[in-house]
Write a structure and sequence with these properties.
Blueprint: E1 38-45, H1 59-63, E2 85-91, E3 96-101, E4 106-111, E5 116-122, E6 139-143, E7 146-151, E8 156-162, E9 169-176, E10 183-189, E11 194-199, E12 206-211, E13 221-226, E14 248-251, E15 256-261, E16 271-276, E17 281-286, E18 300-305, E19 310-315, E20 331-335, E21 341-345, E22 354-357, E23 362-367, E24 371-372, E25 387-388, E26 391-396, E27 405-411, E28 420-425, E29 438-446, E30 456-462
Antiparallel strand pairs: 1-30, 2-3, 3-4, 4-5, 6-7, 7-8, 8-9, 10-11, 11-12, 12-13, 14-15, 15-16, 16-17, 18-19, 19-20, 20-21, 22-23, 23-26, 24-25, 26-27, 28-29, 29-30
Length: 464
């Protein structure tokens, strides 16, 4: 197999302990001759306020906290539950990272070249404990026009204009999607200038198509698809959802949206709904089947497009009671063309957000529900193990000749369900494409875990 490219991190002098949580091979034997070693660096992206100050629950409380500069609540107090953050996004054009930070009522904007928080796009409902109405949630950035799009807890999608550097956001408009609970994850179709956003609460369950435009008058709802029914004849292909809707993506190769649906009436162990942006209908549903035609116990949450028209499916830590024993957590790669299984991995699972990095041809999985033994927690008799062991899973996406291959897991922290891979040319790169040297690293938001994790956005990269 072609080796993973050697990556020299700008923080290579700050090496910490590398955590290995499993080196068992997946479907095929190990073909690597230079098994990659990744680790968490000492770099932590934190805020400028006193971390001992309790996280605010209202905008007024946040405004009352004295900060030297912008109020960025990246490191919460020493508990595991006070930092409510959700999906993150990296824009390689401007080298900026964007994180849905409910404690800060907005989208944190980070310069990835120096790991520094620059500001925040505010105006969201913030953290609403015990409900499904917190926000911001899903987030993405478009480059033409240059905007931030993010789902909010009041069923709206907030849109901000960005300056050319991507570090200054100006509120543009708020689009109601027609629900009551949160508008969550999004995908962008640049070919038809459409955003697909999912309302994922079990009482609503629909996706909305919104047109992208520089002027707010051009940003309009164009269509919807319900995944709820209630009449079975009203369900899309694959069936109505019985367990939420999760991460969507758009594939320019097929011209289609793909949506992770954890459970449906037709596929109780999960499916990938295939959506045509022109007809605005579900045109196919991949049932996530193994080589024998049996459904894989996946309940998908994360979804990312890799090379060769393949999709990494981040199977969640949720468990269908009908799963056969042993109920093991897994991750899978499928074909975007027909949904056929490319490879199944039992070394990592229980993921939420997943990401593909073209800079090092690697998948990264925010497996916050992974366990020692790889078994779901709270499922008696399912299999040996089940002790919580959140990790960042790393899978080589494969070359033209070889398929994807598991690399390793890195221990993270409770609630570390968000991930974004960072890549950009280093200062020493030449202008010739063949001679370009890239910086590759990964951002994982980490809550404080007393005695285990100090918190902040952890910077993860290859140890040279």
């Amino acid at each position: 197999m072609k080796p993973v490219e050697k990556i020299l991190s700008i923080y290579s002098c700050l090496i910490l302990i590398v955590f290995f949580t499993g080196t068992v091979r997946a479907v095929e034997p190990d073909q690597k001759d230079d098994f990659a070693i990744y680790g968490i660096r000492q770099v932590r992206i934190t805020h400028s306020c006193d971390p001992a100050i309790p996280s605010p629950q209202t905008q007024a409380a946040a405004d009352a906290i004295p900060c030297a500069t912008t109020q960025i609540f990246i490191v919460p107090p020493a508990t595991t539950s006070t930092w409510s953050q959700d999906i993150s996004w990296f824009n390689p054009v401007t080298k900026k990272y964007y994180l849905a930070d409910r404690n800060n009522f907005g989208i944190d904007i980070v310069d990835v070249t120096n790991d520094t928080v620059l500001g925040v796009a505010t105006g969201f409902v913030g953290n609403q404990p015990g409900t499904n109405t917190s926000g911001p949630n899903g987030v993405l950035v478009t480059n033409n026009p240059h905007q931030i799009w993010a789902g909010d807890g009041d069923s709206t999608v907030k849109v901000f204009s960005l300056n050319k550097n991507g570090d200054t956001a100006t509120f543009l408009t708020s689009i109601p999607t027609g629900g009551v609970k949160r508008a969550d994850e999004l995908a962008y179709d640049p070919d038809h200038q459409l955003i697909l956003v999912a309302n994922d609460d079990d009482s609503e369950l629909f996706v909305t198509f919104i047109s992208v435009a520089a002027n707010k008058s051009g940003i309009q709802i164009k269509g919807k698809i319900s995944f709820l029914g209630p009449d079975p004849k009203d369900c899309p292909i694959g069936g109505c959802s019985t367990g939420g809707i999760e991460q969507p993506i758009y594939d320019r190769g097929t011209g289609l949206f793909y949506l992770a649906v954890p459970q449906t009436t037709g596929h109780p162990n999960g499916e990938i709904a295939v959506i045509d942006p022109i007809s605005m209908k579900v045109v196919n549903a991949f049932g996530l089947l193994d080589a024998n035609g049996n459904q894989i116990p996946c309940l998908p949450h994360g979804l990312a497009q890799g090379p060769k028209q393949q999709l990494l499916v981040g199977c969640s830590g949720d468990v269908n009671a009908a799963f056969p024993s042993p109920k093991q957590l897994v991750s899978i790669v499928i074909s975007a063309l027909d949904g056929s299984l490319v490879r199944l991995f039992n070394q990592v699972g229980g993921s939420d957000e997943v990401w593909y990095n073209p800079g090092d041809n690697t998948y990264y999985l925010a497996a916050s529900s992974w366990t020692i033994g790889g078994c779901p927690t709270g499922v008696p008799g399912s299999c040996t193990g089940g002790t919580a062991n959140p990790v960042l899973g790393i899978i080589d996406a494969g070359s033209d000749a070889d398929g994807p291959e598991f690399i390793q897991n890195i221990k993270t922290a409770a609630g570390a369900h968000s991930v974004a891979a960072i890549f950009y040319p280093s200062e020493k790169s030449s202008t010739s494409p063949g001679d370009r040297d890239f910086i590759n690293k990964v951002y994982v938001p980490l809550r404080v875990t007393p005695g285990v994790e100090t918190g902040g956005i952890g910077v993860i990269g290859r140890i040279p």
